[in-house]
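Worked example

This section walks through a single chain of length 749. The input is the sequence exactly as stored; nothing has been trimmed or padded.
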Amino acid sequence: MPKYLYRMLVFSLLLSAVPVVCIGLISYYIASKDIGKKVNEGNVQILLQNQMRMEQILKNVEMGAVQYINSPLVSDFIYHDLQNDDFQTINNLSKGLYNLHSIAGVADTQLINLEHDWMISNLGFTTTDDFVNRDLLSDYAKRPQNLFWLATIGNSLDENKIRLVVKLPMIASTTTPKALLIIDMSHDALLSNLAQNTQLGNIYVLNRNREPFLASSSTVGIQPSILQRMNVATEPEGAFETNDMGVNYRVSSYNGWSYVSVVSIDAITKESKKIAFITLNACVIIFILIGLAAFYGTRRMYRPIHRLFMMMEQFGGESKGNKKRDEFALIEERFSSLFSTRKQLQQQLQVQSGQVKEFFLLKLLMGQVTESEFSYKYETYGFGEKGKALGVLALQIDSLEDTRYLDSDKELLLFAINNVVGELIPKDRILGTLLLDQSQVTILLGDSEDPDELKGYFYQMAELMKSKVHELLQLKISIGISRPFQRYTNAMDAYSEALEALKRRISLGNELILGYEDIEPVYRNSVQPAASWNHFEESLMNGLKTGDAASAYEYYNQYASAILEKSISFNDFQIFMLQLIAKIYRLVGQQGGMLDGLVGAKSVIIRFMKLNTAEEIMTWFKTELIPPTLAFLQGRIDSQYINIAHQMIELIHEKYDQDLTLELCAAQFRFHPVYLSRVFKKEIGTTFIDYLTNYRMNMAKLWLKDSNMKITEIAERLNYTNSTGFIRTFRKATGMTPGQYRDALTRSQ
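Given that input, the structure is written out below as tokens.
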């Protein structure tokens, strides 16, 4: 029923029910008598039974919680800094939590690591920010007990929470835990264990603060006068009367909760039952008549509201969950949402457009964008007019000494500088700005074809940026300027030139504006590597590490070709190749080998220095140096795989009758379970679980043939929790049950 219609109907019923309730109460009061001893004795017994049932449920939950946290999986990983890619560990921890749900009364479980800020619950693997109230976690951590029950009061009995909190580690002397296990009990499940027959009264359960959180009747609340008497009660059990109510109570020594039975003295009198029966029938008839009239009237009054609500639902596709809310609130929310949608979409588009543009410029500086791709997307991102000369300016903070800033503020300051530069330079004279490593990078658009004019313009912009940053932030900065270029794909080399210019601060000082052309004479006798060379070199080393021959040869050719394209001298080419040999020396040494022995020469360097041309050097690399290096590293990888796989097989043969899992293998061999699974599959040709299952089935066949063991005994020795699972697995492997297999062997003999 719609909420607003429900409110109108309830109000009409309540307004009409007041006279009926008054008549019933007066009739009920006239027939009142004292409560008998039998009722009191019955209430005492019922109260004791309810207490015992309730505490048994709570103790079972405590036992399950302690068993879970003491399990090897939880004790090994509860204090780890788990991430989303630790899916196997998270899955296993989650299974343990879900198993707790099988305990009677458990509604929800949450495993929270306070130290590393992660949580596992019915929401999956999340941060503790997803906990309903983080302040509660701090409160739980400050409590002296390591295991305690809490019963909190909500707006209604249905919203009350019964919760078990376990602080981990449990045996720690400090009160500051590293993790928490929280188990929420089902209100309905606990309520079902209270006596539901209210003929002899209602039963309430109070927490340590004497607040009712559980009641056998959700329609009758406990009287304040009873709570006042309970607050001053000192005996563990007793009885008293107040406001024509007979009260029996018991205070549990287990958790301090109070079990209270409340029965109306007047309700059990013989005479009052007759009047109560007559009054009840009269009230029912009156309520039915009033209910029909109220339902018809409120439906007619609600029709205009319903039509408007349906229109909003069709327009916005309202979900069923929202139908339970107030219709007027939903209508107001929908109108407000419609009016603000356009503005929100525009703001989101602007933010995302800026982020995508910055990412595209980053790819350009990294050399990951082709000329045609950049030209195609030029107008899409609004980069300005095509065909203009470009220049890269790299700005770095010299020092934060003698300033009001700390080293931790550096990233924030670079972000502020990036914003200042973006607003300072006209939009038609700038391709874009971004932050890269420890530099603020600006790509300028020139307005001239003359190199001297472009150089002067770049210096002018650099001076403007420097003075503005000093004015606003009082920072000492230096700016490196690349040479002008025309092709967009040269942006990567231009960025390297700007950084290279900044390196001259070591000898020239700080607060400088340096152009790459100004420092170029210093390096006229040497060749500076382009940024792309480093990429080829790193890719070559990665190919060697992984044993990928095709990748290693391809990237070596690209690396050598990129160097030779610069028309460098032979001596410079030798220097670059010697640097590469040194890195290969280090790579082979890390794997326990010697490069000289692999190549078959007393000294690789001496052999290399006898080569007289670039062609000879490239041929020697591809025929004498790279092949044995690849073979050695590939052999290391293969031997490691084979060794691990055979160790896992030996472990299966030794411990097949135990609870053997990939996680236990990972703990023993100190590898990740996913890595072990992949190695085993590659070397053995089957999965770890399939191999273990087949081995167990082969052992079962031997025992069925050569022993008189029962099937249940065989299942138990093979670590099956029940014979049903063993029989199902055996039949899947052999096509017959163990009994049929043994009979077939007997007949064949």
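What to look for: DSSP finds 27 helices and 16 strands in the chain.
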